[in-house]
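Entry 12.
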Amino acid sequence: MIGMHRRHRGRGIRIGLTLLAVMLLTTGWWSANVTRKGQATVSVLAHRVEQWRARGPHGPISIERGSIGGAVYGEDGHPLSGAVVVVSDRYGKTVSAVTDAQGRYLIEGVPAGSAVPAATRQGYEDQVFRRAVWEGTSAVRVRPGKTTSGADFYLQRYAALEAPTDVDRWEQVTVSNDYPRPVTALRTRLTFERGGCEVTSYLYEPVLEAETEDKLPGIVAAYPGETLNWEPASLAFVAQGYVVLGISPTTMRDLDVAADTEDLRVAMRLFYRGVLSDRVDRRRIGALGGSFSSMALVRALQREPYVRGAVLLGGLADVYLLRHDIYHSGYTGYNVRPTFDWAVWSMGRPDRLPRMYVENSAAYHARGLPPLCVIHGTGDAVIPHNQSERLAEMLAQAGQPYELHIYRGTGHYPGIHDPDPDTEAMYYDMVRFFAQRLAPRPQSLPGLTWEQ
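Predicted 3D structure (tokens):
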């Protein structure tokens, strides 16, 4: 009797919590669809309910499969080849397909049930599936052994880049470092305003013993923390003869990767146009990003075609995969940091709300990226190294040039203040990559305007 009472009481609690969740999710619809924070709150709540329900008599995800078919078009209705269409289950396990010359695709092996696919293509904004323009998303019903067709996408061209009105130059100071050899640089703090936010970057130019009119190659370094904390890294590349623009796109706004990306793009475009320094060779520009700043950098690289090569160090490449690893940490071995998992849960389920997943996953934008040098350590406790391996896999499938370097036992942040042998090896891998990709050679320059 006592056991039966406890079972009934537990069942009653589950029913009560489910009804409460439905009420909160329903009444929270407005905030969830108007603000990112509202959406995040509802998504975390939904995950908590799902976790609780998983303790009850609910089976695993369906093992029955079906297919989704459709086509991808441009805004003028012409078919787009080479677009990637991806769909996920609730845990982040994905299946995808690439459109053919007629823009058609077929994704096989989709779990039976409902899911929202998403499409990406170089030159166009990412889009989640919706049947009507007034819908945020539209789920596709997948039946076992059947193909659900008609899941068509109409992609919009990239939006115009907002140009800043002024760039302010502040203090100039001389800074120096001893790695890998004694080097002195002139550091200039630069600011511009965009969208009501002051964006700060630091320009590092080599101080040379003899004056020269020769232009120098440039590197845009997108750092995952305060830019000045990474000054030894900037100076290490100045020592190799580069002009370096250091910027931290993830520290100026409230977890808004889209706005971070546009801030970074404006800084990159100013660097490319010679506004920030007249010493930069516009034909020889590379980029560097690591950790979570790699999300903004990859999104920027898709839209800034003049970058001839980029380094991604310990970067996040597939947010779907990250969610999967967190959800199944018991067998993936990924010991997620406290609160980091809730940041992922706040994005919502990838089978229902895939927008943030696909937008921030470099793996599904491989076809639009420049040559990459991808570096990761197996001891990384923040972002697992299978993220870089996943990116390398997708780059290979897309036929894009890349190189992958996996360092055994190396952690998330290299020791830039006191380089150990692994950090030094990483550094020279990057130096060699940039020397190869930014070597002088005749080439035409993209004629970019601020409207592109």
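Annotation: The radius of gyration is 24 Å. The CA atoms of residues 4 and 22 lie 27 Å apart.
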